[in-house]
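Work Package 3 (structural annotation) set out to generate three-dimensional models for the target panel prioritized at the project kickoff. During this period the team completed the workflow that converts sequence records into discrete structure tokens, so that structures can be stored uniformly alongside our sequence database. As a representative example, we reproduce one entry of 99 residues exactly as it appears in the project archive.
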Amino acid sequence: VRIYSDLKRHNIGDELADARGQNGVPKHQFLTPPLWGLSASAPYMHDGRSPNVHYAILAHGGEAAPAREAYTKLDAEDEGSLRVFLQSLGRPQHLECKP
């Protein structure tokens, strides 16, 4: 199943940190949510602070800073193509288990 996530916790920077950590998890670490279903999940980020995918990408820091910087270096056409791809990631209606 292509969920487009590594399901790991990542440091995404102090700018996105919550006011305090929770259950022993530092305030700047978040579980990477699956990107499938992204088109139906606005607003974006863990707290809904980003109205669209563009601003959500730009808000990432910490371990995600290199990906953010790569995104900012894309030309307008490639940037748009990436956002179209991300918006196309739908969540399957049901998952079928095959033996």
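Helices lie at 53-59, 65-72, 76-87.
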